[in-house]
Amino acid sequence: MAARCSTEAETLALGERIGTRVEPGDLILLSGQLGAGKTVLVRGIATGMGIDPAQVRSPTFVLHHVYRAGSKVLHHLDLYRLGPSADIRLLDIDEMLDSGGVVVVEWGEHASREQDAPASISIDVDDDGSRVITPASNAPARLVLAWGEGSRE
Ligand SMILES: Nc1ncnc2c1ncn2[C@@H]1O[C@H](COP(=O)(O)OP(=O)(O)O)[C@@H](O)[C@H]1O
Ligand SMILES: [Mg+2]
User: Which domains does the chain have, with CATH numbers?
Assistant: First the structure.
């Protein structure tokens, strides 16, 4: 299952559908080249969680942002600067998950967190500029439902 998002608005809408389905302790790893739309997707996820999307900024130079709405907490990480050998233990993702947060990681492939059964989502930029957004086959069905309501290919 993949969604083809031709516009930023479509990517935001997919993110919002994902954000309505996340649960405390979810770990979502995003992969895709610079400019693919990872931060845009996080903005949509925030919206779906009831968080003001204007708070969501690219954390490339900060590594970690935290957004809250009521009891909901969204941790937004970006491992771009840490690179493939990131010592992710410094960021204590376990504590974020155990405390009931939702954790979304840009450049999530640098996180080596397969043991947590994360939901991995890849974003590919097609020749026509549209984004093809695909959940990993082992992503929770409850999240994959977000794709069923959008455009498919
Ligand atoms: N279909 C689309 N989905 C998401 N972003 C898009 C799309 N088309 C164009 N864009 C643009 O691509 C850029 C994506 O930026 P960003 O989300 O910061 O990328 P990343 O976090 O992957 O580096 C934004 O400037 C956005 O407006
Ligand atoms: Mg980004």
Answer: 3-148 (3.40.50.300)
